[in-house]
Design a protein that fits this description.
Layout (H helix, E strand, L loop, with lengths): L1 E7 L2 E2 L8 E8 L2 E9 L5 H10 L4 E3 L5 H9 L3 E3 L6 H11 L13 H6 L6
Length: 123
């Protein structure tokens, strides 16, 4: 499994549209096999999709995200898990070993119905 997480400093970016760096991780046997950092422009959805496809990333995990990039990711077969928060490495270690998202990594205030309506996967 290969995932990307937009980061802001050492945290999952609270707002996808403000991030400029992706933490990319390959997870094998419930461990982080490799991680890299890649710059990206969240305002250019087509370039982002090309980058994700080129890097063979199947899942993007982020904080809050606007409708346009969220829908574009989903329409291009990128699994989107939104409204996630916390220290990026702490989250990545937890996610790699359990492949689930604990309540402590979920942003407050997102109702399940809202997330389902947007076709994303809610933690």
């Amino acid at each position: 499994m290969k995932i990307a997480i937009p980061i802001w400093g050492n945290r999952i970016s609270p707002v996808f549209d403000s991030a400029r760096t992706l933490l990319v991780a390959r997870i094998e046997n419930r461990k982080i096999a490799k991680k890299t950092y890649t710059p990206f422009d969240p305002e250019c959805c087509q370039d982002l999709i090309r980058l994700l496809q080129k890097m063979q990333i199947t899942t993007l995990i982020c904080g809050a995200i606007s409708t346009k990039p969220a829908d574009f990711l989903v329409e291009n077969n990128i699994k989107l898990i939104s409204f996630v928060t916390g220290n990026a490495m702490d989250f990545l270690d937890y996610f790699a070993s359990r492949q689930t998202i604990e309540k402590g990594h979920m942003m407050p205030g997102c109702s399940m119905e809202y997330c389902r309506r947007r076709k994303h996967i809610q933690p």
